[in-house]
Amino acid sequence: MLADAARTVDAPGLVIALSHRSRRTYQLDAGLLPDDAPRYELGSASKPFTGLLLAALVAAGRLRYEDSAAELLAPGHPVHPCVRAITLRHLITHTSGLPSLPADFYPQALPRWSTAPYSRYPADRVVRAFLRARPRHRPGTRWHYSNFAVSVLGHTLAAATGTPWETLLRQEVLDPLRLHGTRLRPGPPPGDAVGRRRDGRPLPALDTGGFNAAGAVRATPSDLLTFLEAHLPGTTAPTRPLTAALADVRTPLLRRGLRHAHTHTLTWFRHPSPRGPVCFHAGATLGQQMFLGFRPDTGTALAAMCTRRVHRADPFIATMHELLTEKL
Fold it and tell me: Rounded to two decimals, what is the model's pTM?
């Protein structure tokens, strides 16, 4: 089944990593071994890491989901009432009312849209854009996917704890789960996979600027399976906060989509399947694609990645979603 999926996707640098009841199977490019596989850019599939970090901090009693992000970032700073009402839960569940990206992001990004659109929009600018925002909808009333919101969450967690987001994620999530092959900044090849344009030309490593919490994670296939396996029921987490956090992020939280047919947890999209619900998240950077998913009822986890720029008719995400929901 993995080989069939690989033939359907037909992408360079493709890795499909499967864990079923703790047994791992890999489908890799010829000549590549699991232990030698590079780190891939997760893009938006970084968000479950940030969400798990938030859940761990809440479980440890250091924060509450209902805390106001503005009050933690800039206590007493005058902001729009809707901004004042945005909580940490709103930010991670895409219900804050914030747009996908700040309005002033696009003019500076367009000249570098195909190479480095985020690189010149630093953290302080993300925070300023949040504090002066005028949300179109009251927090909690609409679901709208937002890199902006999750990036603000990362900066809020750092401000609330007095610890940089990278250090915080390392201390609370990566090190306890022994994700030693996971990085939050780019490194040179062959340690990091090289993204490709559609014509095969290489692309520079992704620079996420001030949007790290929404897309900066880079990880090996083995680390990604370890991360996903930690979400499966019956797996023992190394700390009590992580145990509670992993249960939290599996729990259905809200409904979205046409006729509210789709469920969302704190960090994962959750769809039905013939053998129980599937939790998943996809990601794409300028030249790489990522799919992460797990099915709690059968102890199954799947991580897939490739080095190809996404396009409208690309079969990668649909193939991996179908593989996890209907075939495995």
Answer: 0.96
